[in-house]
């Protein structure tokens, strides 16, 4: 199979192969879904991250296509560039469809317009009905020279997320253990239930977050075994676990660095500037990450705003998935000896310690409540025992002030007493995407804070 590199990748180990954007490679062996063995035009062979390449002839191979970004991210990307006629093509919220997002100064101030690429009954593509083409690249090429109904011709393709490269599953194929000598510790970012988190660098060049695990805070041996599995979980809306330092104590967990920190703090600090649609996009980001965990039969067990992080483009990613099983902390311990965050937990966890993807769905509803209350604490004036009693008797969180009745209904569906009565993350994602389409098409843009 022939592929083309959509990102640069510098070999990190002797077994890796360097990738250059736009060059073609032959795939020799797909070791797994995440790392493939490839050969370049000079005959060099090695492992490459599969999410850095795409098959020749696919839409992803074009410099104007931006993978894994939503409407809000596209707008931010185009506004940062600020070029009249700057554009990207991205996957639409509607399945198997694409949208062209264009930046224009035509109204006297910069704005972004969005055009969905439509298809005829004969599978022809068009933006304006009088100009129909057999493929999306042909359509884009035509509109690069002719506005033909658009606010501007498509003048400047804006590359996929600029220099922001996607995370790889581990630093290399089968590499989950990291040597302490490869890490440079920099400023402290904060502290949590496990210990101190610092900004650092791996091999003096790759920015990472390093969590130094406080002695006695974690069941270490069990976690190390699980870490080997967790490094294989790779999704644009999950904070990537790169590996673990285990040769000395305290052990360190090395993850993707997220510039804007914890979602909970971000919500509290930016409460006056975040529009309702932007809040909804944040929930969509989390739901996408959780759908991936659901598909891979992985349970988070502690989904909350404090366990999500925000990157430089305000994309929200889920972190610390599965970690509560290894926490030795009274805050997570019930009278039965099990560990869980009470105010984010459903009845079957409170009473029977039964975790599932549907208990994660309940927690997601509480996370949505946190987002639309701009970082308030759920059941803030009640003790854990009072919360258990209230939830058991059918009591639920009130509608937060930034949530419409429709949005609150989504939360409330997550809080069904019985697990089978709650939607799956896949179903929730469809609901959120449809709601976002209706919001944005009705003109309720990101600045809408009413």
TrEMBL record:
<dbReference type="InterPro" id="IPR036028">
    <property type="entry name" value="SH3-like_dom_sf"/>
</dbReference>
<dbReference type="Pfam" id="PF00018">
    <property type="entry name" value="SH3_1"/>
</dbReference>
<keyword id="KW-0449">Lipoprotein</keyword>
<keyword id="KW-0829">Tyrosine-protein kinase</keyword>
<keyword id="KW-0547">Nucleotide-binding</keyword>
<dbReference type="InterPro" id="IPR036860">
    <property type="entry name" value="SH2_dom_sf"/>
</dbReference>
<dbReference type="InterPro" id="IPR020635">
    <property type="entry name" value="Tyr_kinase_cat_dom"/>
</dbReference>
<dbReference type="InterPro" id="IPR001452">
    <property type="entry name" value="SH3_domain"/>
</dbReference>
<keyword id="KW-0597">Phosphoprotein</keyword>
<dbReference type="GO" id="GO:0004715">
    <property type="term" value="F:non-membrane spanning protein tyrosine kinase activity"/>
</dbReference>
<keyword id="KW-0067">ATP-binding</keyword>
<keyword id="KW-0728">SH3 domain</keyword>
<dbReference type="Pfam" id="PF07714">
    <property type="entry name" value="PK_Tyr_Ser-Thr"/>
</dbReference>
<dbReference type="Pfam" id="PF00017">
    <property type="entry name" value="SH2"/>
</dbReference>
<feature type="domain" description="SH2">
    <location>
        <begin position="64"/>
        <end position="158"/>
    </location>
</feature>
<keyword id="KW-0727">SH2 domain</keyword>
<keyword id="KW-0418">Kinase</keyword>
<protein>
    <recommendedName>
        <fullName>Tyrosine-protein kinase</fullName>
        <ecNumber>2.7.10.2</ecNumber>
    </recommendedName>
</protein>
<dbReference type="InterPro" id="IPR000980">
    <property type="entry name" value="SH2"/>
</dbReference>
<dbReference type="InterPro" id="IPR008266">
    <property type="entry name" value="Tyr_kinase_AS"/>
</dbReference>
<feature type="domain" description="Protein kinase">
    <location>
        <begin position="183"/>
        <end position="436"/>
    </location>
</feature>
<feature type="domain" description="SH3">
    <location>
        <begin position="1"/>
        <end position="58"/>
    </location>
</feature>
<dbReference type="InterPro" id="IPR011009">
    <property type="entry name" value="Kinase-like_dom_sf"/>
</dbReference>
<feature type="binding site">
    <location>
        <position position="211"/>
    </location>
    <ligand>
        <name>ATP</name>
    </ligand>
</feature>
<keyword id="KW-0519">Myristate</keyword>
<dbReference type="InterPro" id="IPR017441">
    <property type="entry name" value="Protein_kinase_ATP_BS"/>
</dbReference>
<keyword id="KW-0808">Transferase</keyword>
<dbReference type="InterPro" id="IPR001245">
    <property type="entry name" value="Ser-Thr/Tyr_kinase_cat_dom"/>
</dbReference>
<dbReference type="InterPro" id="IPR050198">
    <property type="entry name" value="Non-receptor_tyrosine_kinases"/>
</dbReference>
<dbReference type="InterPro" id="IPR000719">
    <property type="entry name" value="Prot_kinase_dom"/>
</dbReference>
<dbReference type="GO" id="GO:0005524">
    <property type="term" value="F:ATP binding"/>
</dbReference>
<comment type="similarity">
    <text>Belongs to the protein kinase superfamily. Tyr protein kinase family.</text>
</comment>
């Amino acid at each position: 199979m022939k592929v083309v590199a959509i990102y640069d990748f510098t070999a990190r180990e002797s077994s890796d192969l360097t990738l250059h954007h736009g060059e073609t490679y032959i795939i020799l062996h797909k070791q797994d879904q995440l790392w493939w063995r490839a050969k370049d035009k000079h005959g060099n062979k090695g492992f490459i991250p599969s999410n850095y390449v795409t098959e020749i002839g696919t839409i992803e191979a074009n410099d104007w296509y931006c993978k894994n970004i939503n409407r809000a991210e596209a707008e931010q990307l185009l506004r940062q560039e600020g070029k009249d006629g700057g554009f990207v093509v991205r996957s639409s919220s509607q399945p198997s469809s694409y949208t062209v997002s264009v930046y224009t100064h035509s109204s006297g101030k910069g704005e972004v317009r969005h055009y969905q690429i439509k298809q005829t009954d004969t599978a022809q593509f068009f933006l304006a009905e009088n100009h129909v083409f057999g493929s999306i690249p042909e359509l884009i090429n035509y509109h690069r020279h002719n506005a033909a109904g658009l606010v501007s011709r498509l003048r400047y393709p804006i590359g996929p997320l600029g220099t922001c490269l996607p995370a790889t599953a581990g630093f290399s194929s089968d590499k989950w253990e990291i040597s302490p000598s490869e890490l440079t510790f920099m400023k402290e970012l904060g502290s949590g239930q496990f210990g101190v988190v610092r900004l650092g660098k791996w091999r003096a060049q790759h920015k990472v977050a390093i969590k130094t695990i406080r002695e006695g805070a974690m069941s270490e041996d069990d976690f190390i075994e699980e870490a080997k599995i967790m490094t294989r979980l790779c999704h644009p809306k999950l904070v990537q676990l790169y590996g673990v330092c285990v040769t000395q104590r305290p052990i360190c967990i090395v993850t993707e660095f997220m510039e804007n920190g914890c979602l909970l703090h971000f919500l509290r600090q930016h409460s006056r500037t975040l529009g309702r649609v932007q809040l909804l996009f944040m929930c969509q980001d989390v739901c996408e990450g959780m759908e991936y965990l659901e598909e891979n039969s992985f349970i988070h067990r502690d989904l909350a705003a404090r366990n999500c992080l925000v990157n430089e483009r305000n994309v929200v990613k889920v972190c610390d998935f599965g970690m509560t099983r290894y926490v030795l902390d009274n805050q997570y311990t019930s009278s039965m000896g099990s560990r869980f965050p009470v105010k984010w937990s459903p009845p079957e966890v409170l009473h029977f310690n039964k975790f599932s993807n549907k208990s994660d769905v309940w927690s997601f509803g509480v996370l949505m409540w946190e987002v639309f209350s701009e970082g308030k604490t759920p059941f803030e004036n009640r003790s854990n025992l009072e919360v258990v009693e209230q939830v058991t008797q059918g009591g639920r969180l009130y509608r937060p002030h930034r949530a419409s009745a429709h949005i609150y209904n989504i939360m409330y569906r997550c809080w069904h007493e019985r697990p089978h009565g709650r939607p799956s993350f896949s179903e929730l994602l469809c609901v959120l995407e449809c709601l976002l389409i209706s919001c944005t098409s009705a003109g309720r843009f990101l600045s809408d804070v009413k």
